[in-house]
Protein: Phosphatidylserine decarboxylase proenzyme 2
Organism: Cannabis sativa
Amino acid sequence: MGNDSSRLHLPFRHGQRPGKASSSSSSLHKPLTADHFAGIALLTLRSAEMKFKDKWLACVSFGEQTFRTQISDQTDKPVWNSEKKLLLEKDGPHVARISVFETNTVSSNTLVGYCEINLLEYLTQDPVETEKSFARRILSIVDYNQDGMLSLSEFSDLINAFGNRLAAEKKEELFKAADKNGDGVVSMDELATLLASQQEKEPLITCCPVCGEVLEVSDKLNNMIHLTLCFDEGTGNQVMEGGFLTDTQASYGWMFKLSEWVHYSSYDVGLNSGSSASHIVVLDRRSKTLVEETIDSKIVLSMRAIYQSKIGIGLMDKGAKEFLLSISEKQGKKMNTTESAKDIPKFGQINLAEAKYPVEHFKTFNEFFVRELKPGVRPIACKERDDVAICGADSRLMAFTTVDDSKRFWIKGRKFSMKGLLGPEISSNEFDHGSLVIFRLAPQDYHRFHSPVSGTIEKFIDIPGALYTVNPIAVNSKYCNVFTENKRVVSIISTAEFGKVAFIAIGATMVGSITFSKKAGDHVKKGDEFGYFSFGGSTVICVFEKDSITIDEDLLANSARPLETLVCVGMKLGVAKNSSNFELPNLETFAIN
């Protein structure tokens, strides 16, 4: 690999500043304990075979970060030879999403396919052997003549780079200790063994030879993590470019970046991404990876014009509400015609393998839109425990301990209140200070909703209203009160574990029809189908009585950022506070098929 001595940082002299450690991914990880550390994966993207010619790039999304390759010039069999090291924590992200984009346009690129890999399944190497492998990589950097042996001078350069003055003063002694067979040179294995054994006694490495960061001598685990992430593997492969949130962002061309700068729009998670930016970024709970909802820019601009200004809302009061109701009704009728079935193949981003029936079974688009799923594809967490509530819809979820929290972080309508949400026929006293969970369904989602708890349905109350969009652009608007003004149906479920639970199905633009599978007086088991929305996006809100539920911490933490969490029916939502098993650890977040 040639002489790499230029990559080594010698110990700092007085007054000299350390190297730019922030540029290294190793400096970005938080300190870990052995109980939380799972391993470090080296993911290499080599090439792909395509069915047509173009220029291609690939992205790897892992947790809340995305990396990308350079664009390959080979048009039918792109070759990237790019790699990235990923730190795995036992309770952190495990799934890497690999996406491939064609790059034939100036402003945006087209996703042609993706796959997901559970990296934990590949961590089978013995930890001791991993340390030795890493040590061999470090030592090979100063093997200038590439003979697999280190002379005394090569060994001295390496010890100097480690930044340990005491070790530097006894280089010859250490060299002799490593040279087990006394042949005057040290093999990679000999020096790797010395390094591993010395780390247990008196660590040799007190300074990272790559970034120059001073290492905490007593923290052996995090030193190993830091050094492993800092050093390249000597493969000659290109390290992927980072700094992106999602694969869609990483794939954009230079024209998009220019337009972002011109419009002062930022790519970020949280409220800005929903209310003012043109990107909605959510966190997939299963893979713990950020994903992006794409919305046509013209639609974004029109929604901002309507929902983010007094003038736009003023137009709503002068007839636009009736217009939305009218077009939703017309669209609903259109989607019930046999002619609408031709639009089914064009409706992407759906896992058809989960559907109970094949595509040709559906005679209208709405039949397809409200499709059922195969039994078992949405397993119920802690199925036999009624003191555990579950997520009631495939959706983007926001959860808040109190209604006040929801208004501080997410719902910006000035007139939002629990009384306004539930309507005049239901007393809001029991729910005024309760917990609130919002399930926002996008058009591509499975549109049947399920009961989050077990209990008896007391009543259904129909509340007429408008059909505003439930997009965060409207929900985050201080001028609009989506949840209290839209058409909705409020049901009350009486439970033994959570008291009363309000379940509100809210219509939205293009959703004029809310159908229920149950009736008042029916007993429901958590996970039972409760109803469905016809074509369009829509929302379900669950309200729990005060101090009746402890919502899962990851959902609350994401919502406080504020960041929507992508969930599926059956995932764990929280535990009843009066549960005798409340302190039971390791409750299933996801049920196992």
